[in-house]
Amino acid sequence: MDLGIRGKRALVCASSKGLGRGCAEALAEAGVDLVMNARGAEALEAAAEEIRARHRVKVVAVAGDITSDAGRAAVLAHGPFDILVTNAGGPPPGMWSDWTREDFIKALDANMLTPIALMQAVLPGMMARGWGRVVNITSVSVKAPVSVLGLSNSARAGLTGFVAGTSRQVAGKGVTINNLLPGIHATDRAVALDMAVVKARGISMEEAIAERAATIPAGRYGTPAEFGAACAFLCSQHAGFIVGQNILLDGGATNTTL
Prior knowledge:
By secondary structure, the chain is of the alpha/beta class. Helices cover 46% and strands 14% of the residues. It starts with 8 loop residues before the first strand and ends in a 9-residue tail after the last strand.
């Protein structure tokens, strides 16, 4: 399927690996020029070069902390953008008694306030041009909170509330905002969570992975490639009537009808 977005320009955050990389790859395959961002310059440039070579699109790599004012200014200087994919690593797991106010502020900065700041920066231009796509990578936890991810539950729920209202305010200008809610995917984040189980229970990594995979009706972890394909579709010309949605990609693990 031709997604109809060849020649568009996208900012994809945290895109040197994992789900962000999957989104960058899928958009590049559709002919979208990219500005890629991540903290690690070496891994980011390597990913950017691979995408340039594979898909023959323009790719600018901007290393920096997207949660900082300076980091956002550095990437936004390469606009204007037709497509924005927000993404940031989730906060660490733990118990409600573990976290301080500073822990919550850090989680809010990364997983709520930074996506909001990026949207506030790019939405006016998108609206003026009459077209735009925003996809926020959030978490299955906004549909079904995960007990050990209280920091993530809180911050991502706040972002979800912001998108719910804002998406309806900009849709009439040809701009859509939607959220993708990943369940367990084969990324570094999954490795970190599995390792926490390994340490807590004294089991092997293989056992930890097998136990979690068994909770997923699909029987496996998702892949960055299939996640990226879903993101690219939401960014396409075909998705203009999808507004303010929270779309699960979890292999059926969340047992809900709504």
